[in-house]
Specification:
36% of the residues lie in helices and 19% in strands. Helix 3 links the parallel strand 1 and strand 2.
Length: 180
């Protein structure tokens, strides 16, 4: 009995980790890759025109080329009207170091938006609030990859509650928005 329960536990743990890894490694939809090829399509042009009308800044997404969930987050930002530029890199550590993202703040992708850094699967609503309020801060962080956050949606609709933190100029974190 003990061997079966251990095997069941390990099987469940393996399945959960495989699900997260496959979500991150899924191929991003073509619409998420706006500027990585430099080719402008009619759909991209429409998003850019809409963003100019809304006066939304460019979202520069730094991500590993093999990460699919990052493409899902980029699509979320495009759906909110932001123009998005994808910058694929195999050295995300250098990007995070340059932008001052500490180990306890890390997620899979890092974005630059109008002078702010945005780490992880931060919802567009939190970024819109940041840009409207313009606090003296370095940006926003959402460590890890919470299930249900933009780009990490679950097929069954399950969502973990998560908190987006404001990254102060001194590197400290404080609650910015809560998401249930």
């Amino acid at each position: 009995m003990k061997i079966q329960s251990k095997m069941s536990f390990y099987g469940l743990a393996l399945a959960a980790s495989t699900l997260l890894i496959s979500a991150c490694n899924a191929t991003p939809a073509a619409s998420a890759v706006v500027a990585s090829t430099g080719a402008a399509t009619a759909a991209v042009a429409e998003v850019a025109v809409a963003a100019v009308k809304q006066n939304l800044p460019l979202v520069k997404v730094h991500k590993d080329p093999n990460c699919g969930c990052c493409g899902g987050w980029a699509e979320h930002m495009q759906a909110a009207g932001f123009p998005v530029q994808i910058n694929d890199t195999t050295d995300m550590g250098a990007v995070k170091e340059r932008l001052g993202i500490a180990d306890n703040m890390m997620s899979c992708h890092t974005a630059e938006i109008d002078g702010y850094v945005v780490e992880g699967h931060v919802p567009a609503s939190a970024i819109q609030k940041l840009l409207a309020e313009r606090p003296k801060a370095r940006g926003l962080v959402l460590p890890g990859m919470p299930i249900g956050s933009p780009g990490m949606e679950s097929p069954d609709g399950y969502s973990q509650p998560f908190t987006v933190s404001l990254l102060a100029e001194d590197g400290s974190l404080s609650e910015f928005t809560k998401h249930e």
